[in-house]
Every structure is written in structure tokens, then in C-alpha cells.
Amino acid sequence: MNRYNLESRPSDGRSWLRRLFPFLRWWNFIGWDTLRADLLAGLTGAVIVLPQGVAFAMIAGLPPEYGLYTAIVTPVVAALFGSSLHLISGPTTAISIIVFTSISPLAEPGSAEYIRIVLTLTLMAGVYQLAFGLARLGTLVNFVSHSVVVGFTSGAAILIATSQMKHVFGLDMPRGHSFLQVWMSILNEVEHINPYVFAVAMVTLAFAVWFRIVIPRWPGMLFAMIIGSLVCLLMDGSQHGIHLVGQMPATLPPPSLPDFSFDTIRRLAPKALAVALLGLIEALSIGRSIAAKSRQPIDGNQEFIGQGLSNIIGCFFSSYAGSGSFTRSGINYQAGAITPLSAVFSAAFLALLLLLIAPLTAYLPIAAMGGIILLVAYHLIDMHHIRTILKTSTGETAVLLTTFLATLFLDLEFAIYAGVLLSLILYLNRTAHPRIANLAPNPDTTGPPLVETDIECPKLKIIRIDGPLFFGAVNHVGEYLYNIDRTLTRKRNVLIVGCGINFIDVAGAEMLAREAQRRRTQRGNLYLCEFKPDANRVLERGGYLETIGRDHLFVTQKEAIAEILPHVDTVRCQQCDKPVFKQCPVEPGRKNG
């Protein structure tokens, strides 16, 4: 049995129970071998997420322990109720920055009011996600271009780095300023940079980069923060303006209560939707990328439910909005995890580490955290995919740049909406303009009867429509058919090969019926062949075949050509100098006279 083939076909009596509790699908496959593998993977993940959780909480404007609380509660619920075997949820950089930019104008970051509003935002995002999953809308994520995520995360990376400049340089800057205003303030305050703060940040950053390059398997960020703390102690940083993170409470995630006031919910509704969409896109894209390696099926709807429940439950245990983490999920898979139990072990180990190391955070400089966050921000910028998008597609480049620039200069939730909307517009534009190919007889008798070519019969136009014939494409196809009559030869007879038409709706069927009527008034005809059964049923049930003519619908191309040619203007065919069919009165390839 494949090590990742943990799905079994449940009996009818238990199928509903496994749909309600998806962890029952893999629970029976747990053994000593899987427990050992998941235990080791969980320990690795706990060490990795420890510095990340603190950093992400600072990005979100929350006390550092909230990042660890989120990394304890969220992954357990998401693992038990999701569909991926390896996806690890928790705090992420993109979600953290959008939480900060959404809530910081409403309350002072780190304050009790700020925390309550963040918890409310988390609850509402979870409700959105759960509703999407229950409504079976998991496939909607497929219509969101990956360029939206690349553009947003790249812009968010720059915003994250910008937000840390005051910690890296030791400058006092007012909160709430825009991207450009922050950099203008930095340029104006260059002479006030604290060299001690800057030195701690750079030493921490340098060692984090060194560990990542030289010893990538080690928890480099954790060791870099320890080194940064030692440097701060050696230079007596507290006497030189180096601020410390402060001691975190050595407690497990305590119960919490969001703000349920109507005014808060009303203000947060659009912001929560943006958080929900970004979280779902992140989680599903990461889950599918890892599933491509592990050959495990991913249920998008179940993943939506898992992410929604993790945020809903998490907000009542001091956790803010989370999603799938590419770094931690990838490490979880590479470390040999077999079941989602690795996420549970990771959360348990992290809780133990929190109880043990919480007093040590009193010696952690904020400048060291700033250096670590700069590295996190740098690795958010996916240069490989950016170069690929710029080289490959003009439309995707527009989506990328629009989302990127909107992230930098506009509200983050608007940036996500703008990118998603633009990607949907490009998709709809492509489907609304299906490719229409010109066909003619194939000179190679061993191949298909009709092939794409520039040569065509002067009296019979043969086309193939490659795409759906729905309300969005009706205008494009209708204009093309109308313009056929505007040519010098005025082709009155048209044969549409429908093998490339995926489906037809009422608007498409009505357009074909109107076109058939129009051509009959011009002493021509519209013919159809190789239409798929679903398309034929639409034409049949709507009565459109009666208008088009049942004798104008053919099964194969050969049958259509054999039946149509005798009804074309044979007098003019005798004078044709471009015969292309074998049935032509003049031999194909030769002229009259």
C-alpha cells in the first residue's frame, strides 16, 4: 500500500460520520511506525515555528505570545477537520500584515481593545470560510490567479520590511503612516539612527542568513535570535536605547472573547472577507502543491471547513487569523510526516517549549526580531514566479502589478479584491472570446476530414468554435458569423463543427437559431456537426432544433460535407477556380478552362 494512500472506502453506515469527522478517515491507519515519523516531524515543526510565531505576532501588532497561541490551537483544528495529510496551519506573514493594516487604524496595536477587535476579525473570517466550505464553493479558488497571491505577498513583504525599519534603526515614528510617508520619515531621520540598535539587528540578520545557507537544517532563526540577545547583553543594550520584547506569560492559550458589538462587526465585515479569501487561497494552493508530491487527493471544500473551524475555535483561545504555511508544511512533509497527527504533536511540543522558554524572552531585543522579520520578508518575494509571469503572459503581468501596487499604496483588503476581480475579468474575457478556427478538407486521406487552413471554399464557410457557447461568448461568435457575409464572396452557407464547444446555454442556443433564420432569408443555411450530447440536449429541449432544422444537424464531418455540397449553388460551382472538395464539379487543385 502507498504510504500516503490513507483513504479507505467507508461503509454506508459510517460514511456520514466520516464526512462529519474527516480525521476518522486516517485514524485507523495510525501505528507505531506512523507515530514515530509524526513525532519526529512534530518536534522539528515546533522548533521551526517558535521564532516564526513571535515574529508574526509582532508583524500583526500583537503581543508575541499570541503568535505562539495561534501556532498551538489553529494547526490542531485544521489538521483534524481538513483534508490534507501534511498541511500545517498557523500564523503567516501575509495574514499578519493584513491584520495589522486592517485593525491598527481602529485601535492602538498591542492594546486590549486591539486584541479584542483582532479576535472578532478572526471569528468573522472563520465564519466566511466555513460558510464557503458548507456551500461547496471550494472550486472557486481555482478561478483566482496565482499571480494575485504572488503580487500580494511581494507587496506585503515590502510593507513588512518597512514596518520594521523603526525597530532596525531605533527611530521613533508615528503609527498609521502610509508606505511613502514612512520612508520619507526615515530619510529625514537618518542622522538619528541608533548604531547600537542597528548593530544588533544586522548581527542577527547576518547569522540568520549564514545558518540558512551553511546549515539549512538547523533552526537558524532561533540561534540567530539567541546570538542577537547575547550581543545586546555584551554591549549593555538597555543603556543604549535597545528595547526588549519582554517576558511572555508562561501559560497555555487562555480563553478569550471577541467583541460582538454590531458596530465592530459592521466595520470588520469587508476586512474579514479579505482575510478569509487570502487564507483560503494560501491554504489550498499549499495543500495542493504538496499533494502533487505525495499523490494525495485534496478536497477543497473540506479544506475550507477545516480552515474556518480553526479560526472560529482559535479566536476563543487567544489565537488570531491563521492559514496554511508553505515553510512549515514543506518541512513537515520533508521530515517524514505520514498523518495529520504530526500537527498535533507539533502543537504539543510548542506548548511545552512555551512553558520552558517564556522567561527567556525578557532578554530578547526587539531589534533582533526586526532583523529576523527582514529575512522573512525577503523570502516572501518569489522572484522565480515573478520572472516567469513577466515573460509568459501580459494578462497575468497586469494582475501581478495591479495587486502589487495596490498592496503598497492602497488598503490591503482592496488590493486582494482588485487582484481577484482583475483575474476573474481576464478569465471571463478569455472565455467570452473563444477561438474560431477556419477549416477546409484535409489533403491527407489518413487524417481527419477537416483541418485548419487558410484555404477555403468560396461558397461554404466551415468553422470550429473552441470554447463554451454561453451568454458571455454570444456577442463575439454572433459578430464573427455576421461578418462572414461582409466578405466579397458573401458566403451564405456556414457549417459549425462543435467538437470544441464544451457546453451551450440558452443564450447560445438562441443565437444559433437566430443565425439559422437570418441565413435562410439570404438564401443560405446554417449547418451543425459533431455537437456533444449535452449541447444537443439543450437544442432539443428548447425547441431550437426545429428552427435550425433537424436535417441540418450531422454526427460526423464526412456526413455533413456529403449532405451539404449538393445544396450549394452548383451553377457558381461550375465556374469556381478554387475547388477544395472531392465532390466539387471541378477537380480540387485545378482551375476551369
Task: Explain how this protein is built.
This protein has 25 helices and 8 strands. By secondary structure, the chain is mainly α. The longest helix has 33 residues, at 262-294. It is elongated, with a radius of gyration of 31 Å.
Strand order, largest beta sheet: 4-3-5-6-7-8
Please compute the radius of gyration using only Cα atoms: 31 Å
Low-confidence segments: 589-593
Q: Give helix % range.
A: 55-70%
Let me know the average pLDDT. 81
Helical segment count: 25
Bin the strand percentage. 5-15%
Please count the beta strands (DSSP E, at least 2 residues each).
8
Short description:
The protein is mainly alpha-helical. It is built from 25 helices and 8 strands.
Per-chain topology:
Layout: H1 12-20, H2 24-27, H3 32-59, H4 65-81, E1 89-90, H5 93-103, H6 112-134, H7 146-163, H8 165-169, H9 179-188, H10 195-214, H11 220-234, H12 262-294, H13 300-314, E2 323-324, H14 326-334, H15 341-357, H16 366-380, H17 383-392, H18 394-409, H19 412-432, E3 435-441, E4 450-452, E5 460-466, H20 474-484, E6 493-497, H21 506-521, E7 525-529, H22 533-541, H23 544-548, E8 553-554, H24 557-564, H25 570-574
Parallel strand pairs: 5-6, 6-7, 7-8
Antiparallel strand pairs: 1-2, 3-4, 3-5
Summarize this structure as a short list of keywords or feature phrases.
593 residues; two-stranded antiparallel ribbon; elongated; disordered C terminus
